Amino acid sequence: MRLPFRPKQSLGQNFLHDPNMAEKIVGTLEASAGAHVVEVGAGTGVLTELLRDRHEHFTALEIDQRAVDVLRETYPDVDVRQEDVLETNWPALAAEHDGPICVISNMPYYLTSELLFALLENRSHVAEAVLTMQKQVAERLVAEPKTKAYGILSVLLQLFARPTLRYSVPPQVFKPQPDVSSAVVRITFGEADGPSDLALDDVRPFVRAAFNQRRKMLRNSLSAWVKEQNVDLPHGWNKKRAEALSPTDFGELARYLTTRTDFVEGR
After folding, report:
1. Confidence grade of residue 24 (pLDDT, cut at 50, 70, 90)
2. Of the candidates 35, 59, 64, which has an alpha carbon nearest to the alpha carbon of residue 47?
3. Of 37, 119, 158, 238, which one's alpha carbon is 20 to 30 angstroms from that of 78?
């Protein structure tokens, strides 16, 4: 496949060129009829061509002006927008067709965490996401406690959404070929996914503090709350490391520390 322009390393561009893999990725999206599908990083349009034929409400986002020009010329019927995904107004996108959106993306690896957190923060406006990412990161999203891959993304994605690693993607289907293997992850965001009494920012500070010093016991990694507020952790968690707690445990931990901290500050 001859690319219409030279990939920019600064944008992390590795363009999918295999039609069979494109079909498989697009087929992983389970968007309902009439759903608003948003492609993030449309690139040369390999997924765009399939998506526009399957979804009446379809928007393609792309930051590279060269790609935007190619997409608009090749698919004049598609709503192509030059936009930085880190500045995307997700609630506004969802409001355009009165419902949560479905996101699909073969994204640059360096944007993976930012996009995942953006979707989590706006999960009430997103129904599902099908994302191609570095396989090592994909494995983190679904990692179980007490494993090396288990970390911040594992806890927050599993607590507030439902991620599934669907299949691996070999480097050969991209141009230029990346140095690592990729994988496709499907994430659903529903009202039943996540505790109703906790927001993302209620839990995130504790998870980050715990895993940023993952080799320390929680009484030390969470010392800003445990020691300074003179509180103790339930279930013997003082002597546990972050990797020992499940996502649900972190939810309970957040409730406990928030309640205790509020009590200490207010007395």
Report:
1. very high
2. 59
3. 119
209, 224 in Cβ contact below 8 A?
yes
pTM above 0.85, yes or no: yes
- What's the number of CA atoms in the CB half-sphere (13 Å) around residue 146? 2
**What are the φ/ψ torsions at residue 175 (nearest 5 degrees)?**
-135, 120
- Mean pLDDT of the region 15-36: 93
| DSSP assignments along the chain, one per residue | ---SSPPPGGGT--EE--HHHHHHHHHH--PPTT-EEEEE--TTSHHHHHHHHH-SEEEEEE--HHHHHHHHHH-TTSEEEE--GGG--HHHHHHTTTS-EEEEEE--GGGHHHHHHHHHHTGGGEEEEEEEEEHHHHHHHTPPTTSTT-SHHHHHHHHHSEEEEEEEE-GGGEESPPSS-EEEEEEE--TTSS-TT--HHHHHHHHHHHHHTTTSBHHHHTHHHHTTTT---GGGGGG-BGGGS-HHHHHHHHHHHHHHHHHHHH-
Whether the pLDDT of residue 255 is over 70: the answer is: yes
Report the alpha-carbon distance of residue 125 to residue 205 in Å, rounded: 23
Q: At residue 88, does pLDDT exceed 50?
A: yes
